[in-house]
Design brief:
The chain is mainly α. About 75% of the residues lie in helices and about 0% in strands.
């Protein structure tokens, strides 16, 4: 196991892509229109909306920090879905897991924290913008959004997506089918966006901090348990990776899966626990200030 732990860094090291001499696997950038187009549209909407609001307002509609958060989240999406990492994930479960971690633990919280929804809305023509605003404010849509971003519900949805998609039948289906692979990534990204919207308490100011902190701890346990099962497993779970015998980095399928499990278990747990502890410290500080 310690040999596997020491090898985690090799998964994300650029030199790992050239491992194996003549049989080296050199991943390519993913230039799929179904991936590139949504990313390009999102960036264009942000740029157009920001320019329109900036031209009408006396000050910037977003702080420098919010702009950096949105662009950082967008760049992480590109790194996960377009860079050679995506192709590497077809040969290595550890690389695939790293891709999922970028989507759920980095891109999603950055995009949510940017709070750029208003700017994105301004990219549309006046009538369309008003129509969309009225649509999102309807009782049905607003109520659905409040329900989906409830801390407990969003935690359950993300946990369900995580465990269901990592069940061997569904994961092997995603490996065989581009359509199901896209559905898998969308499930992870959408549930992560809902989860972090709830954790950052953007739309529900009356939610008790301890509820959010509890959900973060539960999520760390849920994802950590799945990662631990992978890390300590002595046989590969997925037929798609098992058939490769050796992955792109020279590991056996079992070792590759153990590294993937460690990536889910340790970094994932640290992110959720770190945010939980930061929120707990803030809540204690607020109570201390109120008591004075």
């Amino acid at each position: 196991m310690w040999r596997v732990i020491a090898s985690v860094a090799k998964v994300i090291a650029p030199s790992a892509f050239t491992h194996g001499g003549d049989n080296a696997f050199a991943p390519e950038w993913t230039l799929d229109v179904w991936v590139i187009a949504p990313l390009a549209i999102a960036l264009a909407l942000f740029a157009i909306g920001y320019a329109r609001v900036r031209g009408r307002a006396t000050r910037s509609p977003l702080s420098s920090r919010q702009i950096a958060l949105f662009l950082g989240g967008w760049c992480v999406l590109v790194a996960a879905l377009v860079s050679p990492l995506h192709r590497a994930g077809e040969r290595s479960f550890a690389a695939h897991m790293f891709e999922h971690e970028l989507l759920m633990l980095v891109a999603a919280p950055l995009l949510v924290a940017a709070r750029a929804q208003g700017v994105l809305l301004w990219a549309f023509p006046h009538r369309t913008r008003l129509g969309l605003a009225r649509f999102f404010q309807t009782r049905a849509i607003a109520g659905t959004w409040r329900g989906l971003t409830d801390p407990i519900i969003s935690t359950a949805l993300q946990a369900a997506a995580l465990w269901l998609w990592h069940a061997p039948p569904l994961f092997d289906l995603a490996l065989r089918s581009d359509g199901w692979h896209i559905a898998q990534h969308l499930s992870f990204l959408i549930t992560a966006l809902l989860f972090w919207s709830a954790m950052f308490n953007l739309h529900r100011r009356r939610t008790r901090p301890m509820t959010i902190i509890g959900c973060l701890f539960v999520t760390a346990l849920i994802s950590g348990a799945l990662g631990a099962l992978m890390a300590f497993s002595t046989s590969p779970w997925y037929a798609g990776y098992r058939a490769l015998q050796l992955d792109a980095f020279g590991f056996t399928p079992t070792q590759d899966q153990q590294i993937a499990g460690l990536l889910m278990w340790i970094p994932g747990g640290l992110v959720h626990l770190g945010v939980a502890l930061a929120l707990l410290a803030g809540a204690l500080q607020t109570e201390r200030s109120d008591a004075v």
